[in-house]
Amino acid sequence: RVLVEASIEAVRERNAAHPDADFALEPVNPVRIVFAFSGGRDSTALLEILSRIRNAAGQSRIADLTVVHVHHGLSCNADAWVEHVQSFCKARGLTLEVVRVYVNPRAPEGVEAAARQARYRALLRIARERRADVIMTAHHQDDRIETFLIQWLRGAGPEGLAAMSPVRSFEMAGSEGAGIALVRPWLDVSGEEIERFARKARLTWVEDESNSDTRFLRNLIRTEMLPHLDAARPGWRKAAARSVGLVA
Fold first, then answer.
1. What average pLDDT does the chain have?
2. What is the pTM of this model?
3. DSSP codes joined into one string, 93-132
4. What pLDDT digit, counting tens, does each position of 19-57 carry?
5. Under 8 Å CB-to-CB from 86, ≥6 apart: which residues?
6. Largest distance between two CA atoms of the chain
7. CA angle at 210 for the pair 231 and 191, rounded to the nearest 5°
């Protein structure tokens, strides 16, 4: 929760002057957040934290929280995932937008990249409509390390090897994201820590079967490579995350 509140604080400082005069409240400038909610473990855990902050009595950090679930149409379980996220949000009084997109399974850039582009286009559209300051995702430390390794295998330079930043301006080819921050508050939090919190909070989530498909490079790294490093050098992930941070 502390990391989530700190990320919101960073955006409040970043966007101290909002174009709407009646939105700039003193002594704080609350933010409008669009949250990417897949229904998986990580986004479920982060949304649980966000909902607790947003629903706390007297809170002044969050002016608006819109939850967005993107239905990619790639899984036979996609409709069931929609039912799950609807139930989760209804129980917490959260505003949910379900956006259906088309992803070409034969896209030249690969289905993963095509799905990611479609997802971020949908998030950006909702963020504009809601006049949001923030698009927030649940990427964590393990995701950052995996991205670093993917970029390293591609021969990327320092910018690519920096992998992900906790707070940065939203950038997307062919679109305008001016004034919107892409926020990932859990880049220093491991998947194990998220798992412990989710179990303790008795949360339920969906499992995307494509995450075990090792035809995708990220899944191959996660399931085939990283466990060998865990066995060979316990604790290496924290050290690796520090290196990624230093590059960034």
1. 88
2. 0.88
3. T-EEEEEE----TT-TT-HHHHHHHHHHHHHHHHHHHTT-
4. 554 444 444 678 999 999 999 999 999 999 999 999 998
5. 96, 98
6. 57
7. 40
